[in-house]
Amino acid sequence: MKNKLTLGLVGFGCVGTGLYEVLNKSSLLDAEIKKIVVKTRGKKRLLPEEVFSYEINDILEDEEINTVVELIDDADAAYKIVVAAFKKGKNVISANKKLIAEHLDELILLSRTNNVSFLYEASVCGSIPVIRNLEEYYNNDTLSKVEGICNGTTNYILTQTNYGKDYETALKESQELGFAESDPTLDVDGFDAKFKLLILIKHAFGITETPENIFNYGIRNIKPEDVKYASEKGYRLKLFSRAERSDNQVFGFVAPHFIAEQHPAYNVNNEFNSVVVEALFSDKQLFVGKGAGSHPTASAVLSDVSALSFDYRYEYKKEEGGKGLSFSPDFEVKVYIGSADISQINQFVFTQVDEVYQSASYNYQTGWINFSQLKGVDFNSKKDLFLALLPEDIRLISSTDNEKVSEYETALF
Amino acid sequence: MKNKLTLGLVGFGCVGTGLYEVLNKSSLLDAEIKKIVVKTRGKKRLLPEEVFSYEINDILEDEEINTVVELIDDADAAYKIVVAAFKKGKNVISANKKLIAEHLDELILLSRTNNVSFLYEASVCGSIPVIRNLEEYYNNDTLSKVEGICNGTTNYILTQTNYGKDYETALKESQELGFAESDPTLDVDGFDAKFKLLILIKHAFGITETPENIFNYGIRNIKPEDVKYASEKGYRLKLFSRAERSDNQVFGFVAPHFIAEQHPAYNVNNEFNSVVVEALFSDKQLFVGKGAGSHPTASAVLSDVSALSFDYRYEYKKEEGGKGLSFSPDFEVKVYIGSADISQINQFVFTQVDEVYQSASYNYQTGWINFSQLKGVDFNSKKDLFLALLPEDIRLISSTDNEKVSEYETALF
Predict the structure, then answer these.
(1) Residue A196 is a catalytic residue
(2) Contact B152, B271 (CB under 8 A)
(3) Cβ atoms of residues B240 and B151 within 8 Å
(4) How many domains does chain A have?
(5) Which residue in the set A139, A295, A303 is minimally distant from B139, CB to CB?
(6) Distances (CA, A) of A156 to A105, A121, A178, A194, B282
(7) Binary contact (B282, A267; C-beta < 8 A)
(8) Residues B157, B73 share a domain
């Protein structure tokens, strides 16, 4: 029961170009791009000028176009286009994680009201079919954890720092390779990874969080000493988007993690992404694929086009089970905090201290800390400090534990 | 639109026990095991005697039971049960790759005729949702390659030989761990991996092959010298099930492969399985999960139960595109052949020789060879020889190439 798809493309960068090649110059899929709307006039493009339009209504008002593929960077402009497309009864395919993270429930409702499909596999982990797998394969109540490397740029940078480069050199390299933007904030401060985590949480646990309510700390402040600690302990640093469920609570955050060799994502390097899904009565499943770049994105968009031709829609099966869940109550995490300035470390209250290292040039402390304490701090702006999670499960907080823990602390200092 | 599933379980080993725990002792899924049919009377089991029956008709004739979960080893007995279940209008979930590989099209037809579902995610790569992904995510005509480690036992053995153990020791260990059977033939000679490959080929390319028509060579004859070659070149040996498409031809076989460090499956060790899917306009996707053992199998069976509750059926979307395809015409592969006895190597005609190594104790030769030549040989029985593929793409055969290639050969000898 295949549908003929007539597409309107908004934005025409590398991804759009690739899509055009596959859809209009081959007969692989029964889908065709009828119009392409771009912003800037007179730019040199690979297709003849007459294919392009500069007026979004040329797509929106065209009744033959039943699907809008939105591939522009500007989330606010994209929002207006997507809303208008839904209202015109058109399906939407988007790769815009910021747009989706900021308006998820509203856009889902709009697509349902207008009886159209809203697909966005390309928005999370490039070509890894993680949304589709969470939707289709993992049963609601058995999913316990989704975590992984959702940002290819930071994974590239961290991999290079593991090889001995400093952060600035690695960042510059990743910019030259086209992975990082000239302003890398969204990537290196963990915002991009957070938008993706928000989408994963929706499809894994059925709940919607606001971006503001999810903690994101990136890799901007990493020092060679922190990388040295990782390698001494046999760890590799990875920026993890992590969400897990315990009973009726869901915990989710983005932060650098020291990853042990046994972890399936340990060997996922450079621009690759990976997602690990854990479910009750199931072992860990690892998905790996390229995350950054136009190729993986185009591949995921193409798979959405293909799915749409079979009338596919996300069913959000987990929403029902998500009704009783609450997001990110407090919990304890085991962390490493490193700084040349020991007073930077001492401003944090550990519920349990495991290691203290002090030297003339660098200091670090590891141990357990309440997440609520971290959440109140803008770590991305703390240049002289680096925080990362150690490979231990999070701990639920019970008041007795807290009391016990204070004793340890007193004993140590 | 959830269906209440009432299950009849055939076979009650570790997998069955785990399923019973989840389905009958928790409310996680709206499915219940009503009857369990086992073969041997009086065996000590974890459930009270009255739950069990020794008569398959107790399941088949029970109209309330709408789904048969078949978990027995004997493929012939399983065949009769599955056929009878379909004819009674019952869905079937099976993990029996031999049964499925030997009767795939017949069973699909029967399930369609009787308007029931036939699911078997657990039959390939344990808990990795590879069938579902091939069915749902990858578009028909864009898939180019599916390959991977589909047998956990041999991957465990090969990993241990990489660590310096000899084959016999590693095999014995894997038997003690419960990975390998006391007669390990199905695993170590690549039959199990072949059954799985056949199922993968069906869901990837839409064509059905007979097991007899697929070449399978295992790891029984591996020598420390072959492992040494691998480590000198920076490779790791893996038993690969490999299928790829080029235009209207599909190539498929099971054989040991030297895997380079850049390959996504290089770091997949011990009992883990992995599948790499390549599609046009898409990067390689790697799926990793545990392959051997009751836990991964139970997890995949559970996911089929969950899918059935949503009325899920494989649609075999690729069948349409598979109509024009032909399986395993001849092609060239780059191989390594090692033996203490040089005459064993010299019986093969290489179309191109790349390396010749000779010493008092061991010899090997690498180069290109026509696959048709390999296919005619029962390598599993050739104790004094080890064959493995080198990390090069297969080459299509054109007559001019063949002529050219003979010159090389003449020049070398």
Answers:
(1) yes
(2) yes
(3) no
(4) 3
(5) A303
(6) 32, 22, 11, 17, 20
(7) no
(8) no
Asked whether residue A221 is assigned to any structural domain, the reply reads yes
Of B136, B281, B317, Cβ closest to residue A299 = B281
Q: What is the CATH number of the domain that holds B172?
A: 3.30.360.10
| CATH classification of the domain holding B351 | 3.30.70
Of A142, A282, A289, the CB nearest to B285: A289
Residue B275 in domain? yes
Residue of chain B with shortest Cα separation from A297: B282
pLDDT tens for each residue of chain A, 413 residues long = 467 899 999 999 888 888 888 788 777 678 899 999 999 888 888 888 888 999 999 999 999 999 999 999 899 999 999 999 999 999 999 999 999 999 999 999 999 999 999 999 999 998 899 999 998 887 655 789 999 999 999 999 999 999 999 999 999 999 999 888 889 999 999 999 999 999 999 999 999 999 999 999 999 999 999 999 999 999 999 999 999 999 899 999 999 999 999 898 999 999 999 999 998 766 789 999 987 677 788 888 988 998 898 889 999 988 888 888 999 789 999 999 999 999 999 999 999 999 999 999 999 999 999 999 999 999 999 999 999 999 999 999 864 454 443 333 333 33
Range of the domain at A51: 5-119
State how far the Cα of A243 lies from the Cα of A318, in Å rounded to an integer: 15
Residue A124 lies in a domain: no
**Distance of residue B294 Cα from the nearest chain A Cα, in angstroms:** 10
Residue in B196, B238, B290, B334 annotated catalytic: B196
Strand, coil or helix: A407: helix
Where a domain ends, among A119, A153, A179? A119
